[in-house]
Amino acid sequence: MTTTENITSSSAADLSQALQAGELSSVEVTRAYLDRIAATDGTIGAYLHVDADAALEAAGAVDAARARGEELGPLAGVPMALKDVVVTEGVPTTSGSKILEGWRPPYDATLAARLKAAGTVLLGKTNMDEFAMGSSTENSAYKVTRNPWDTDRIPGGSSGGSSAAVAAGLAPWAIGTDTGGSIRQPAAVTGLVGHKPTYGSVSRYGLIAFSSSLDQAGPMTRTVLDAALLHEAVAGHDPLDSTSIDSPVPVLAESARRGAEGDLAGLRVGVVTELGGDGHTDGYEPGVLARVAEAVALLEGMGAEVRQVSCPAFDLALPAYYLIAPSEASSNLARFDGVRYGLRAGDDGSRDLDEVMALTREQGFGPEVKRRIILGTYALSSGYYDAYYGQAQKVRTLITRDFTSAWDDVDVLVSPTSPTVAWTLGSRVDDPIAMYAADLCTLPASLAGVPAISVPCGLSDGLPVGFQIMAPALADDRCYRVAAALEAAQDAARGHALLAGIATTGIATKENAPS
Questions:
Q1: Residue 218: inside a domain, yes or no?
Q2: In terms of C-beta density within 10 A (0-12 exposed, 13-18 middle, 19 or more buried), how is residue 161 classed?
């Protein structure tokens, strides 16, 4: 595993074992990824900030501690990438927006602090849709990120920088955030595993807020076990986050290992009718539905009991989300006023504070952010609150009730992660409704706060398809068990070829991607 190609095609779990066994040093591993970034990221555009010197220094410190015989955790020395919405002390953090260009925070987000304490090595901060508002990473104020499978296509969003980095072998794993599907959808279209934890089970302290009742950070990885290991490292109660759940973290990695044994006898699986099921196939690509059906058959072959489950309120998730999330965004983004930090425009002494604030927001916010702020402000305005925001919250309650009812009959719910494979860059930029439709399948779990994972389930037209598994609140371990079983049941040789092919070449196209 000493060559760059071998290192960057390995899972994070394998790298951890090699580091602990002394077969590799953290400096060797980190340098291999930095070399890959230097050679490839000019095409992919996954990173907004990379500090090679700081990464190598951190890796050297881990190696020195290991040489002294200090007891280190399993993640020590393994490099990683963070979505640029995660506040990191002294490291540029922009949330993909010009309004925060050059800002270096004075503190770490809780999950960043936990990863630092675990000894992980930060490679850099990844590109994203501005303030996490988007499904394609085309809304970044800085650059467009490309899908390593086909560089003419999107890597998903808003965590597209993280998904592209892991899929292209530019990081072994990464943290993304998911408000309405921003971990799961990019994971699906780049052939990764992406998990949205139970709301409140991973601290939001230090995440630049988009929608406070929905935002949740989680892992984006190549394997289910990697996702479970990374999730365990960042999960747990945080008194700095008022929405943090004070309960033990489920044993996630062990659940993934159990699931990989392939025994799902007695597991009740519900296929959600409203998410690509009978009579609800409009907007879903046939290849996506075919791969999902094959995945369901594999679960059934491992002993799972499969049945159809109807969740009628799921049909209303899209309009409800696009009232609730923009409403909360209009409140959260009011803090960017050109006074305390970040961009300040027009402050030449001739303008009053209101003018400076207006100019700052005009220059600092991009079109999609402005669109959602305007929509959210309208929905919260006098005379419209009950008709829009209030009604959307009622729909949210109905969606939660549909989940609660479903859990009486099944243990997990499944669906496609995204109705389509990755689309061509630019093809939906001028059609917000088509862009929003990418989140049709991921929104219900976000609105209800339940855990959901996307795991690869094959290719359609040479591009990855994602399979979504949803479970009751705090049953994240159930997601990992089922996902690992599906992962193990699929063609192992093909699955390894997919990942190794991209990690070795750096870029795969629809024409040359392994199948």
A1: yes
A2: buried
Helices (H), 250-390: 252-259, 286-301, 317-332, 353-364, 367-380
Contact 376, 442 (CB under 8 A): no
- What residues contact residue 29 under an 8 Å CB cut-off, 6+ apart? 7, 15, 19, 59, 77, 78, 79
Residue 344 lies in a domain: no
Residue-range definition of the domain harbouring residue 292: 4-314+398-505
- CA-closest candidate to residue 219, choices 462, 437, 448, 13: 13
Element (H, E) at 308: strand 305-309
Alpha carbon distance 242, 255 (integer Å): 28
Which one-letter amino acid corresponds to residue 417? T
Catalytic residues: 83, 158, 182
Tokens of 411: 């243990």
Token digits of residue 368: 């999609």
Per-residue pLDDT band for 160 (boundaries 50, 70, 90) equals very high
Tokens standing for 210? 């988009």
Tell which residue, 279, 228, 257, 230, has the closest CA to residue 120.
Answer: 230
d(C-alpha 325, C-alpha 209), whole Å: 11
* pLDDT grade for 508, boundaries at 50, 70 and 90: very low
Compute the distance between CA of residue 4 and CA of residue 503 in angstroms, rounded to an integer: 10
In the block, which residue shows the tokens 């892991």?
A: 166
- Is residue 340 included in any domain, yes or no? no
Tell me the one-letter amino acid at 460.
S
**Residue 377 is assigned to a structural domain of this protein:** no
Report the predicted TM-score, pTM, of the whole model to 2 decimal places. 0.94
Q: How many domains, in total, are found in the chain?
A: 1
Q: What pLDDT, on the 0 to 100 scale, is given for residue 1?
A: 57
Q: For the domain that residue 122 is a member of, what is the CATH number?
A: 3.90.1300.10
The contacts of residue 357 (CB under 8 Å, 6+ apart) are: 337, 338, 339
Asked if 346 contacts 355 with a C-beta cutoff of 8 angstroms, the reply is yes
CA distance 17 to 7: 12
3-state SS class at 75: coil
> What is the tens place of the pLDDT at every residue in 205-240?
999 999 999 999 999 999 999 999 999 999 999 999
